[in-house]
Write a structure and sequence with these properties.
The structure holds two protein chains of two kinds. By secondary structure, chain A is of the alpha+beta class. The longest helix of chain B is centred in the N-terminal third of the chain and has 15 residues, at about 5-15. The chains are: A alpha+beta, B alpha+beta.
């Protein structure tokens, strides 16, 4: 880009920002016209003809326009500015511009002609993980219908309403799945009626008529059910679940609109569903699948409202069973994190005071007692703060129930999902991260693992397949087990596929465990049929990467014809690491204990050279590569001679090597801090630890170190 | 519609207009620089920096700022000056820079911190072009205050390559 262009570009972005601020405060048509005609000039300078035309048309639209048209144009200003900003960014990066200009031109024409503006740009669909095929096609220009939600409500109330409504929907969903199994349970019916009633009431209070209407219809159905006047059969269950899905979609839509993005139109589906409810109540609703169109996207709560952008996600969600005695409060997540940071600092400073040598001289019994007390209180405080981050896995697990049910019915297989250990607690952040991998693995289990009923009968297996999802603590870790009694993995098939993809050679000898691990290779899939859900081979490697990012690992066990078992092992919390502090030169590093096999001070005869370089260590008849931290990380004044320093034997997957450090300082539980965006791509370092004296020690990442040493070998 | 005229008379005025305000001025060698006070979070004395591998020499490493780990960049080295030993006047200025749509806290090592100045439009001039030799993208402008020249920095741009330091190294 030329210098002049750069300057013009900067002027343009500055102007876009300024105008965006102005529109927030409230810009008059004159201000908008002046601003946009400046933009027109700048676009011309940059040679962006389509954008120039758009800006020009915008300005011209104000001429002699009716006040209603002016008002609409003003309303559109922020959106148009955002569009310009994005187009400009794309242009700067050399990307193709979208064809949004055409739709904007059309929109402006419509507004000028007094028509409603909308053709919703195709880019605005919320991200969906659809278990039902279609997503509503980009809608034709719509009248401003009831479903074009306009609300004067306070955005904070809206955000809160959305979060709470989603909570309710989750409870409702869990209850409905239980009701499916025991349709006559009055208590469950009562329990599921109440949240619908609440959602309806809140929606009404905020003026969200469509949602209110839908909730009202379902509420009618549930009311009849709990009074014993309507039997809850499969048709009713289907309808209610579809209503839950649609309400989630509406909530997601509401969120989009509240952020100033274009919404989608669900009127058609909503009315159809409402009709279906009426029909079911009247007793004629067996043909639910046609009545309620399949185009309702299955949007999981996490996708409808990405958790990060809605403030207020902190505490364990309400359980379906304890609606009454709810003593759960919502806390802003960042406040919680700050609190935990501060407690961490308190622990460190308290420890530094206790270890201060001047204090050691002054110690007498009263002071000493008080200091011990201080220490006890601080430790207790830290434990409590840490536990604030832990939430039970229940919610995530229950989402899987719904998933399995839908997958099973879609593929014509009968599958039962049995949950164990839903109360097991896990770090809040990990729960979010584990959601996608779990969903993928469960999809695999049902899709590829479980056989069709005919095959199961042939194998004398029970008609209803069983998938178990378990969570439990084991030795300082949390383990999540997914097991099924289906096909099991075929080592031979995997091996053949791996050979054909060039992952391994025909001669290589592999253990069964190693063969199973091959399924995590990118692009690997032995599925003969690709369904829309899985089989494309893009899933498992992402799953593994996600789990490794959480410092976890996946183990596989399987018996062909009997079933498979996937074990996900994760550390209890991402925040604290059990580590060994190592000294190298003037720096200190922390090595996670789980990567360490042993440490030793070698004797001269254990060190072997290759081509004059000392690079192998013999430990009990096995040879390991010798890697110097001082070399890997560029530390001066470190111990060079392995016999003067300490060797730490580390392991990752099945690889092992010996790290040379100056000395071992001691075992320590350290709080892991991210090094931030800046160092995201750093290899060999998993984060920073704040050590006892307040300084930062880098936390080593065994996997990264292995990669680094391979690069060195290559170079 | 005199778009060009509007742009020239208003466009440039607009640019200078947004530059007036309070600046924290600091010294690097013989030169004085300034950054908008709004971006400065705090100033801390020089402390032990934990070095981080695989980074350019001006990225000194990380420090612990009340429980948060932030990266530290030596501005002298970044601008290509000769490295100098740190004195008791050397400080770390903690700034909040923009990267994409997130804000990152970074520490910047400067030789000494001077003062907070209220700089008006009249005192600011557009960055002259020094030809291709000198990169002036990250200068907001040049201010003349009390007879001395202060170079106003846009630290977002100065540090933008550092907020994504290692992508370049690894690619």
């Amino acid at each position: 880009m030329s210098k002049k262009d750069k300057q013009t570009l900067k002027k343009t972005t500055d102007l876009l920002n300024k105008l965006a601020c102005d529109t927030v405060v409230g810009a008059t048509p004159i201000e908008l016209q002046t601003g946009f005609s400046q933009l027109e000039g700048l676009f011309k300078g940059l040679g962006l003809e389509p954008l120039r035309r758009l800006a020009s048309l915008y300005v011209v639209s104000f001429f002699d326009a009716a006040s209603a048209v002016c008002a609409q144009l003003s309303e559109r200003a922020p959106q148009l500015l955002e569009f310009f900003t994005r187009e400009l960014e794309a242009w700067e990066l050399g990307k193709e511009s979208s064809d949004g200009v055409a739709s904007w031109l059309a929109r402006l024409e419509n507004i000028s002609n007094g028509l409603p503006a909308e053709g919703i740009p195709a880019a605005q669909k919320p991200a969906l993980a659809s278990s039902e095929a279609e997503v509503p096609p980009a809608a034709e220009p719509k009248e401003a219908s009831d479903d074009a939600l306009n609300f004067a409500a306070d955005p904070e109330f809206v955000a809160m309403f959305i979060t709470e409504a989603l909570d309710h929907l989750e409870s409702i969903e869990a209850l409905v799945l239980e009701i499916e199994k025991t349709p006559d349970n009055r208590e469950l019916l009562d329990n599921v009626f109440r949240p619908f009633h609440t959602v309806k009431g809140n929606a009404g209070a905020l003026g969200f008529k469509p949602m209110q209407e839908l909730a009202h219809k379902v509420e009618n159905l549930l009311d009849l059910a709990r009074k014993g006047k309507q039997k809850v059969g499969p048709a009713e269950i289907e309808i209610i679940l579809k209503a839950v899905d649609l309400t989630r979609a509406l909530l997601g839509d509401l969120k989009q609109i509240s952020e100033g993005k274009a919404g989608q139109d669900f009127t058609a589906q909503r009315l159809a569903l409402q009709e279906a409810v009426d029909r079911v109540i009247a007793g004629g609703g067996t043909e639910v699948s046609q009545a309620a169109p399949q185009t309702i996207p299955f949007v999981t709560p996490a996708e409808a409202v990405p958790a990060a952008s809605v403030a207020g996600d902190g505490m364990p969600k309400r359980r379906a069973s304890d609606f009454e005695a709810s003593t759960v409060i919502k806390v802003d997540a960042s406040k919680l994190d700050n609190l935990i940071d501060m407690v961490g600092e308190l622990v460190i400073i308290q420890s530094m005071i206790r270890q201060d040598p001047t204090l050691a001289n002054l110690i007498q019994s009263k002071l000493s007692q008080n200091l011990s007390q201080l220490n006890r209180i601080t430790s207790s405080l830290q434990k409590d703060a840490m536990s604030l981050r832990m939430v039970p896995v229940r919610q995530t697990f229950q989402k899987m129930s719904r998933l399995v049910r839908d997958l099973g019915s879609k593929s014509g297989k009968k599958v039962d999902l049995v949950l164990y250990g839903e109360d097991t607690e896990m770090d809040r952040k990990m729960v979010e991260e584990i959601n996608d991998p779990l969903m993928h693995m469960i999809r695999n289990a049902v899709d590829h693992g479980i056989e069709k009923p005919a095959t199961r009968a042939e194998r004398s297996k029970p008609a209803t397949a069983r998938v178990e999802l378990k969570a439990y603590h084991q030795g300082g870790n949390i383990v999540i087990e997914i097991s099924d009694d289906g096909n099991g993995l075929d080592p031979e098939k995997i091996r053949k596929k791996a050979i054909s993809q060039g992952l391994v050679t025909a001669e290589q000898e592999l253990s069964e465990a190693e063969i199973f691990q091959l399924i995590f290779a990118p692009g690997f899939s032995t599925a003969e049929k690709i369904t829309e859900i899985s089989g494309r081979g893009v899933g498992m490697d992402v799953v593994r990467r996600n789990i490794e990012a959480l410092r976890g690992k996946v183990e596989i066990q399987s018996v062909l014809g009997k079933g498979s078992q996937f074990l996900i092992k994760l550390p209890l919390t991402l925040a604290i690491l059990d580590g060994l502090v190592l000294g190298v030169g003037t720096e200190r590093f922390v090595l996670p204990t789980f990567a360490i096999k042993e440490s030793l001070r070698p004797a001269k005869d254990q060190i072997h050279s290759v081509q004059g370089r000392e690079c192998m260590v013999r430990v009990r008849d096995r040879l390991f590569p010798l890697v110097r931290i001082s070399v890997l990380f560029g530390i001066d004044n470190a111990v060079e001679d392995p016999c003067q320093g300490t060797l730490v034997l580390i392991e990752d997957d099945d690889r092992q090597l010996c790290l040379l450090v100056d000395r071992l300082i001691g075992k320590q539980e350290v709080v892991i801090k991210s090094l931030g965006e800046t160092f995201r791509h750093l290899q060999g370092v998993a984060g920073g630890a704040i050590l006892g004296d307040g300084r930062v020690g880098l936390i080593l990442d065994a996997n990264g170190i292995f990669k680094m040493t391979q690069l060195e070998k290559a170079s | 519609m005199s778009a060009t005229a509007v742009e020239n008379s208003k466009g440039e005025a607009t640019t200078a207009q947004s530059l007036a305000g309070k600046y924290l001025t600091f010294a690097l060698g013989n030169e004085e620089y300034g950054e908008r006070v709004l971006k400065v979070r705090e100033i801390i004395g020089m402390m032990d920096v934990t070095p981080v591998p695989q980074v350019p020499p001006h990225v000194k490493g990380v420090v612990n700022l009340r429980g948060k780990i932030i990266p530290v960049v030596d501005l002298r080295l970044k601008f290509g000056f000769e490295p100098q030993p740190y004195t008791e006047r050397t400080c770390i200025v903690v700034v909040q820079v923009q990267r994409g749509d997130s804000k990152i806290m970074m520490g910047v090592v400067v030789d000494a911190v001077s003062e907070v100045l209220n700089i008006s439009d009249g005192e600011i001039e557009d960055t002259p072009s020094f030809g291709e030799e000198l990169q002036t993208d990250y200068m907001l402008g040049i201010a003349k205050v009390k007879g001395r020249i202060k170079i106003l920095l846009d630290l977002d741009r100065v540090l933008s390559s550092d907020t994504a330091v290692l992508q370049a190294v690894n690619n």
